[in-house]
Structures are given as structure tokens and as C-alpha cells.
Amino acid sequence: MPVPEQGGGTLIPEGLNKPGHIYTVSRGKSGMMGVFKLETQISSGSGKFERTGLGSNSQAKEAMDTAFKYLRANGNSISASISTATKDFVVNVQDLNGIGMTNRLTLATLIALCSAALNKPAVSSVVVLGDLSIGGTLIKVEELANTLQVCLDSGAKKILLPLSSAADLGTAPAELIGGFNLIFYNSAEDAVFKALGVE
């Protein structure tokens, strides 16, 4: 078994991850594209949310806070069994390519929190693309072809993509798109359900 952090194509391992473990690909602080892994821990508590691994990146912290606020406000529309008031959450973000932290973390954090809260892992080898604004609007993927290339090089098999990015698929070579199972979502809740394989 190769160590996930070594060599191309093994950053995103095959098979199911643990609940609360989510991969996303976006531009890091250096301007380069890379893979970010989110890991979530959940414990009994009083609704505290802690984010680690971000260093001093205030935009990344804000993005993750937005996800937790969204979950507090809309958790019931995802599942009645999600309680943000009786649990404490810790989400750690790893910059797997060493390109500097991304601030495109809201949607991936929301999915990671829901995955942990429901104790349900994401579907295997999936990467979450796209993001969520502070107002709850979906943000499409910037530079889709480059992003998909990084996903492919990192071992992703499934791509969770906002419907608004469908029009940009023409910018990517067909053989690149053919390397994935594309899963489209049209709302944050829809993204959570599809990431976790819930119909």
C-alpha cells in the first residue's frame, strides 16, 4: 500500500474514507492548483467549531466559519439528526501539495461537517469542486480544465461539480472529462446528499 502523501496519483486513495474526510482541489495562496484534505472530529459538547491547519489565513478561517453558520441555519433541511448545539466540531485542513492554503473551503467544510455528523463517509475517490458564498449562492469552478487535470493526476475518480460549471466542460479535453464520473449538484444541500451518496 503506498503512503497517500507520496507520489503522483495517490493523494486521493481509492475506496471509502472515514466520515468527515473530504478532498477538494483549488488554487492555493501561491497561485498554484492543488489538493486539500479536510478531516473532521466530532465530540459531545455545546456547539463549538474549531478549525486547524490554516495558519494565519483569515480568509480560509472565514470560509470555514461560513460553512458552520450555514449548517447551523440549514442543518435540518439536510437531516433532522444533525445537531450543532450538542456537539463540538474540529475540522483540520491539509495542504497536500504544499502550495499554500486555499480560501475556497466553504462547501467542502459543509460536506465534511455533515459527513461527520451523520457518521457517513463520502462516496469513494470523490473530489468536491465549487464553493458556497456567504449568502448561500453556489460559486462555479475557476479554470475548470486545470482543476480537472489536478484531480486526475491526484487519483480522483468522481467529481462533484456545480451545475453552473457544466457550460465550461467544453474548455477541457474530452479524454480528461472521460477520466471521471461527473456528479452535478444545484444547491449546497444537493451537494451534501450527492457527496455522501444519499438519494
Automatic annotation (TrEMBL):
* Residue ranges constituting the Lon proteolytic domain according to the UniProt record: 35-196
> What's any GO biological process attached to this entry?
proteolysis
Pfam families the UniProt entry points to: Lon_C
GO MF terms listed in the record are: ATP binding; ATP-dependent peptidase activity; serine-type endopeptidase activity
Under the heading InterPro entries, the entry gives: Lon_proteolytic, Lon_Prtase, Ribosomal_Su5_D2-typ_SF, Ribsml_uS5_D2-typ_fold_subgr
PANTHER family (UniProt xref): ATP DEPENDENT LON PROTEASE FAMILY MEMBER
The name of this protein is Lon proteolytic domain-containing protein
Per the UniProt record, the source organism is bioreactor metagenome
